[in-house]
Automatic annotation (TrEMBL):
UniProt-listed PROSITE patterns: C1Q
Gene Ontology terms: biological process: maintenance of synapse structure
Protein name, entry field: C1q domain-containing protein
GO cellular component, as recorded: extracellular region; synapse
Organism of origin: Knipowitschia caucasica (Caucasian dwarf goby)
Amino acid sequence: MRVLVYVAFVGLLLDTATTLEETSLREELKQAAIKWEGDIPCQKSDCSCAFRSMGCCCGNQELQSLREHVSESFLNVSDRINQLQHEIRQVIEPVNVAFTAFLGDVNCIGPFDRNMSIPYDVISLNDGFGYNSGLGLFTAPVTGVYYFSVSVYSRMQWAGQHLFHKVQMMKNGEVQVSTWEDNRDDPEDSSHLALLLAMRQGDQVYAELLQERSLCGNIKGLNSFSGFLVYPTPDATKAY
């Protein structure tokens, strides 16, 4: 009986020593891993190992994801800063856009077989270079609110001539306002159009004479087209 007890006791001591020895060995390995300064071959499958977890290869995927997130955030902030700078420049920097043009030495405009833009060919002012005399139209150089005016004059060329005209102000091909004359009694007629328009950069405005109608007896300065930028506004079509 005493022999069996002795054997059991010795076995317990050996097990305890083995457990303590393994624990001590693991602790030594862990400390050695922490202190290791050399290169460690990349084996992603064992990144949980104390040695491997210290290697750059095991942290590469996480670092790459973090770098992509930081890069994307930086680009978003940069785009927003650029947009804010553009808006600030529109507010604090002077934006000079204004034009005035007249019909020159021409007795009659029209009639035409289709609606035609009126080619005001004498330009006295064109700040911002938005007005094109060859086409008779204004193209907005910046987004904003603009004021436009058109003066219309026509005179009979002989007694009893039919005064018959219609002029309309157009924005991107759509009628905004118009004026017309259709009589035989008044030897001359004049009118004026004016309006404010919200314009995006690239929008176009022009005065149009309707088909089969004419403006005659032009005197320089009586048929004119003018406009100017009242104030710029941020372009809502641009993504932030």
